[in-house]
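All the exercises in this workshop are built on plain-text protein records. Sequence and backbone structure share a record, each on its own labelled line. The question running through the whole workshop is how a given chain folds. The record below serves as our worked example for the rest of this section.
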Amino acid sequence: MKFPQTHTLKEISQLLECEFVGDDNFPVYGMNEIHVVESGEIVFVDHPKYYDKALSSKASIILINKLVDCPEGKALLISDDPFRDFNKLTRHFKPFQSSPVQIASTAKIGKNTVIQPNCFIGNHVTIGENCIIHSNVSIYDNTIIGDHVEIHAGTVLGANAFYYKKRPTGFDQLKSGGRVVIENNVDIGAACTIDKGVTGDTTIKAGTKIDNQVQIGHDTIIGEKCLIASQVGIAGCVVIEDEVTIWGQVGMASGIHIGEKAVIQAQSGVSKSLKANKTYFGYPAEEVRVKLRELAAIKKIPELLEKIKQIEKK
């Protein structure tokens, strides 16, 4: 997430009321999660296990809960609670904006696009040309939708990420300041939910077709010409390459990568990255030929046990 204008390290430290290591005028262009952070941006870390990863990332400013050696060319923001302060930055630069009308005055809607009754179109939403948005669709702030997109009734684009930190008093949510981006010629079925990124974009690329009742988590990227069947659940930060087919009720863990033209058969559970151009099945999902051999072997277990009993009797 880029800030509207460049700020200095000192200005950000004053906003957070924390100490800093680096030049007062060190430039700060924005903030991001570690998997998408770029030079000039802030990343936060609050666990020693991830200090090295954060310090060696592309981030130029590390919001951290311990004074450590600052890498050359970078800066530190020292906070007793980086999670809290990262949220503070999100609230400051991307505050919630209410809208008293069904279609916000700042929304941009392209030529020949049809918006059916009872839709909500939030602040700074852009919808391209020749789209159909069916009834009761909710499109949250800053969503970008391309041309020739059809979205069916009851779908929600841009809800918050499901991202929480456990505290002694309960769970604190990591605030979401990102967007949903839908490219050209995408179809989205009824009652789907696509969450916005925490600081970046959740992206559905051109030509992808999504069935009803699909959940797509924050910061996930789905490639071109993918097919996703009903009741699929995709966690946050997943990368799915082009022309992947995902059949019904597949579940995916966060942070994994699916290679292009992979096929994942129905009711599979995907807990690790999968290679391109192969078909997968089962839980944990494996190449279908391997999984079917395993299932065939399992069916032989009763027969093998009976043979063992007969041998023991002798």
